[in-house]
Amino acid sequence: MDSPFIYDKYVTGKNFIGRKADCNILSNLLGAGENVSIYEAPRSGKRSVIQQTLFNMRVAGKPFIIGEFNVFNIRCISDFLIRLVTTAIRTTSTTQDEYKRIIETHLDGTSFEFDQKHFSETGEIVVLRGEPTVNDIHAATRLPYLLSAEKSTPIIIIINEFQNVDLTEDGDKVYKAMEEVLKEMQKTPMPKASYLFSGSEVNAMKSIFEGRKYFYRQVEHFQLRPIETKEFGDHITRSFLSGGKVLDRDLLAGVCKLFRNHPGYINQFVSLCDYMSKGFITEPVLLDALDTIIAINEPRFKAIMNDMTTYQVSLLKAVLDGYSKFSASEVITKYGLNSSANVKRLKEALMKKEVITFDENDIPQIIDPLFEHWVSKYYFGMKREL
Questions:
Q1: Are strands 280-281 and 112-113 parallel, antiparallel or unpaired?
Q2: Which of 169, 219, 224, 314 pairs with 19 at a CA distance of 20 to 30 A?
Q3: d(CA 244, CA 93)
Q4: CB 356 within 8 A of CB 350
């Protein structure tokens, strides 16, 4: 029997809980041809919201075509552009003749080519001859708009882990060139294509869209709202009852608080509880499940800590102790942070490692709620309860 507690892939339909308003907002943005950015912690529900939104749009009869690819394993601009062009072409075409026509029509004068031998051997639609130019980036970015115009149907291109473009030889070159095309397309009357830039490295995405301000006023930042504890409680209680099991709502509220209503962790946790129990789910079962989920993630958490300098560990402890004004003399002295200049470097280092992030009021938060629990209780020996 399929488990109602899914944590290893995105969910839609009956397993999708909460965030109905988020789906409506995202549907309105995409339906209006807006470009959108979404950056949230890993497994926090980004992909589920996107897929449920697209499902809702289809049910509502809204016409659109989807192209999607991932940048997680890309390290050079050429590979990024080839994947973008290939994804765009495949949204509207399925035959070799159509591939060739699109490349000859819409990518003429660029470094993109259709290579028959390469296609036969690898199935890849395009090759890029030589080093990619700004003109090549322009052409690749513009292609979904041109294909959308041909089909008279909006095309939505979803780029997952977009922040990894920064790992190519010149991410800024890519952003600037893409930005120029998006600005150009905002002024045209042709049917709108749109881009959805998704990323799970919060600070890296913030650096692109907020720090360096690429795509300013061209991309709408869409932020997921937390799922209410009651919605989690209703879904989990209902799912357990269908299997003849009961979980105390107060204990469940404690679980939601510990995981800060993070859907990936909560679903994994209650899935373990489901597996470990036969009837009433007691507190010892919850503690066993917590020990198991910690054991699964502990090697990763230890690697995070081993990658930190002593100063960085000290700043992390200050965050856990509730401080936010790290440059104050008493904080520098208490945690041995050395100087205000060093504090700035430490903050930047922990942000680059995606350990902490800061809100608009410069208040720090540890991104991963389970890591926060583990590092507090097991690394620093602070008192933590379920």
A1: unpaired
A2: 219
A3: 50
A4: yes
